[in-house]
Amino acid sequence: MVSLIGGGGTTAPETVVESKTDLSGLWNVIVLNDPVNLMSYVTMVFKRVLGMEQSEAEQRMMEVHELGRSVVWTGDREKAEAYQYQLQEWHLTAILEKNESSA
Amino acid sequence: MSRQLEFRLDPEAVRPLVLHFRSLVDSLKDDLVAENEPPTSDQVMSEVWVEDLLESQRKDIASLNELFDDKFLDTGRATVNEEDVDLVLRGCAALRLVLRDSTLSRFEDERLERGEVEVGKITAEEEIGYSVYILLASLQELIISQLDP
Fold first, then answer.
1. Beta strands in B16-114 (DSSP E)
2. Ranges of chain B with pLDDT below 50
């Protein structure tokens, strides 16, 4: 974040640079489609890593397949990173995005 | 007592596939196969993240190396122990990703996904690579069906 603090008279503006990553709030764990991993494999990984029931795992897998991405978990940053790591460990493409509705 | 999953294949048929598999293994030592990014811009944390994933990937590949060892080349018989199935499943996924980006890179993703590669119209190396790609998928399907009937 950059803020300009104007001084009086002829004083040159002072630039204050503040860099901060806001990790608070809710985060989405998102799995992106890849053309290699099998549907049955992706479904199994969702069950194993995220503890989903078969029907939910299949539904999320189909979202990934048909829409290119699916939000597979939402919650605090620390746990989201742990799930992201585990999904990447299974060679799925997983990213985190801030859940904007929680902002 | 842990369960075992055994499979048998024609040794003559799988020999070129295993040799092709072994030629790809080195490329898996230092680079992650999936297009993944660490969740942080912090350089140190990112390096730790990637190195941990690489170490995990190396274990996955080591399990496949063990499965497709010289004994398998001679007999066509291999056994997966229950405690190793995760490693083998992930190793298969990693190697399929590498094949897609190497031997099979000229094929469109949709053709690979639908199994529409016409074996008679591809080079000998591509045919072997594609056979490995299918073999690994079949092994994954077999293990998953046994894990979760």
1. 77-81
2. none
